[in-house]
Amino acid sequence: MFENLQEKLDSAFKSLKGQGKITEINIASSLKEIRRALVSADVNYKIAKEFTGKVKEKALGQEVLSAVSPGQLMVKIVKDELTELMGGETAKFNIDGKPAVVLVSGLQGSGKTTFCAKLAKFLKSKKSRRVLLVAGDVYRPAAIDQLHILGEQIKVEVYSEKENKNPVEIALNGIEEAKKKSYNVVIIDTAGRLAVDEQMMDEIAAVKEAAQPSETLFVVDSMTGQDAVNTAKAFNERLDFEGVVLTKLDGDTRGGAALSIKYVVNKPIKFISYGEKMDTLDLFHPDRMAQRILGMGDVVTFVERAQEQYDKKQAEKLQRKIRRNQFDFNDFLSQLNQIKKMGSIKELAGMIPGMSNMVKDTDINEDSFKKIEAIIYSMTPEERTNPGVLNGSRKKRIAKGSGNTVQEVNQFLKQFEQMQKMLKTLSKLSSAGRAFKGLPFNRK
């Protein structure tokens, strides 16, 4: 996400290379490029101009340290200003109440129903809440069915009334159901609507008045840019929502919505959603997003995701196997599954400082894992636990069973052998051995 914006900001900073200090003259072209980059990312010109004005004010007022180049200092100032533009700090999400009620609103096609399910899973798995989903979209025929299907996937109960066309009654009945069954949180999905549709806007305002939610969220398709910001403003004037959700951040996102919405609406972004899978939802951290926009990575989020897959006992067991040179294909397959749960490889690479530029033009095929998995699944249990038994005839059988050539099987086996040696060498080093205990190797 934000690749075009990142490239253009990169270009703006390069113009300061070789400069001994920041002056009004040599900063002028950089500021112009930054302003252009923001406008091309669908940020309102007034916001872009005000932003570069703040950057200029801070940059000219700072001395450049001998260890820091003007370009590096400019990156730091822009990062800080981007963080402030997007809200400054992570916004609190209020799920207090018996039960807490979360009302989800937004335009048609913004991804509300999918977000409701993602939020339910997030609260269930990360906050240990008992969640009830309420199907309050009485206009889209497939909406209730969609929510039930998603609810089954994440093992969360869905309350619906297919014959009732009154969303206020459905919301109130759903809350009563939650009280009877001791649910902590109720998430109410609502019909998509247009800001210009007065009747529909009156309806969701009535749902809010009746349900008295602790959080009302407005879901925005981040690919719609400045249009999304204008719509959010119109909705906020009627609903006075507590926060914004940006969906589809894995698409062709220019960045306008993320960068402008807090400034225009004065309401924080609380969540970002970036894929179809139910675990692709994160709290929004302005500082981390600023770092990613500037290609500085996001190590904190990377570590958090790794820790979610980490199990100390399994990690220690794996470490012992590595020390004894017993790391086998079953262990490899297990680690592969943990990596896949953390997110797409391209997204994970973008979280590591310096890697985002390396992978931005690379077509990373997520299906490449399937080839490796097919090879391992084509092995017998003995072959998986004892790679040394793999001879020519066994390799031919594995190649045929996995739909690969013998050369491809041999290439994978060679890479696996190299990895085994590297892991064994690392485990022998005392410092690496201590660090191993903290690595997110496994979790079941």
Can you describe what's shown?
The protein is flat, with a radius of gyration of 26 Å. The protein has helices spanning 3-14, 24-40, 45-60, 70-85, 112-126, 141-154, 167-180, 198-211, 226-239, 256-265, 286-293, 299-308, 312-323, 329-342, 345-350, 355-359, 368-377, 381-385, 392-402, 406-428, 430-436, and strands spanning 100-106, 131-136, 157-159, 185-190, 215-221, 243-247, 269-273, 281-283. The two termini are 31 Å apart. Strand 6, helix 10 and strand 7 (269-273) form a beta-alpha-beta unit. An eight-stranded mixed beta sheet has the order 3-2-4-1-5-6-7-8, sandwiched between helices. Helix 1 runs antiparallel to helix 2, helix 3 (45-60) crosses helix 4 (70-85) and helix 9 (226-239) packs parallel to helix 10. The longest helix has 23 residues, at 406-428. It folds into three domains: 3-85, SRP54, nucleotide-binding domain (Four Helix Bundle (Hemerythrin (Met), subunit A)), CATH 1.20.120; 100-295, P-loop containing nucleotide triphosphate hydrolases (Rossmann fold, 3-Layer(aba) Sandwich); 303-436, 434 Repressor (Amino-terminal Domain) (Orthogonal Bundle). It has 444 residues and is α/β, with parallel strands linked by helices. Helices cover 57% and strands 9% of the residues.
